[in-house]
Amino acid sequence: MKSKPPPADVRRADFEQLYERHSREVWAVAYARWMNADTASDVMQETFLRLWKQQETGETILNPRAWLLRVARNLAEDFAKSAFRRNGTSPPQTMNGVQASEPMPLERLERDETFAQLREVMEQLPKADREILTLRYALDYETGEIAELLSINATAVHMRLSRARQRLADRLKREGVGPLP
User: Fold this and answer.
1) Which of 7, 92, 103, 166 has its CA 20 to 30 A from that of 22?
2) What domains does the chain contain, in order, with CATH numbers?
């Protein structure tokens, strides 16, 4: 039934009241279908957007709660059939070229093995070398921080780091450890 729409501020207040009263229940209907909070939120937003549009046309909804729940159930079911849900926003072929953020299992295994060898060689280094290399590369301390921590000047930090790196490189080479990934 069409009638002259009420003023915008009245429509907005009515809409907000309906949202406050029914949004949790609408969300729960979608959540029960998908068991996914993000999907339920999307369905809830779309349901209330449709309610807003319906009210903008001047159409009177006699039982807003029932209308909202019916629309939410329908949208949740339609989501299952949507191409977006099945394929995302790109065709499946496009996704074949996307690189994973994590390394492939073989690469991860090689990296882990190399790091294990590195740790083993680090254990063989003098304590002072291990300490300065750990501070700089494992803990990412800057030269000034290392100098303060070890009570030496920055030039000495650079010299010790240079010598420790050289000794580490020599040992890694002797052990046959390749370049780090």
Assistant:
1) 7
2) 8-90 (1.10.1740), 105-174 (1.10.10.10)
Give CA–CA dist 178/181, Å, rounded: 9
CB contact at 8 A, 66 and 29: no
> Do 65 and 22 form a contact (C-beta atoms < 8 A)?
yes
In this prediction the pTM is 0.44
Strands (E), 72-117: none
Query: d(Cα 108, Cα 181) in Å, to the nearest integer?
Result: 10
pLDDT tens column, 43-101: 999 999 999 898 888 888 899 999 999 999 999 888 867 756 666 655 566 666 667 77
Distance in angstroms (rounded) separating the CA atoms of residues 44 and 33: 12
Take residue 41 and report the two structure tokens written for it. 């939120």
C-alpha radius of gyration, the chain, whole number: 32
Identify the bridge partners of residue 59 per DSSP, sorted by sequence position. 2
